[in-house]
Amino acid sequence: MPRRPVNVHRAYHAHVYFDADTVDQARALCEEAARRFGISMGRVHEKRVGPHPRWSCQLAFAAGDFERVVPWLDEHRGGLDVFVHGLSGDALKDHTDFAYWLGNDWPLDLRQFQQD
């Protein structure tokens, strides 16, 4: 039987993307996830923040919550796109190698993570 790789992530972020037409839907989704799973909900940013090309709201959760939170988000996102990434301590890899999408993927602005 193949061994599962060691999980290098101590925690995860899920960034729910939205626009002016879906801000209320995104807020409700994030609030429900925070309530249901006891996870941390960040601000609902009605502007681009960090590497994110769209408005977003961040959900932060421990690695142990991954198997409950991510499938629930996928089932309840209602067409919203969600960017999920691990937190390994290497921000560039977290946003590339350790990342995936629920829904459509969007190009991130990774310049802040790259060294000259």
Automatic annotation (TrEMBL):
InterPro entries: DOPA-like_sf, DOPA_dioxygen. Gene3D superfamilies: DOPA-like domains. This is DOPA 4,5-dioxygenase family protein. It comes from Ramlibacter aurantiacus.
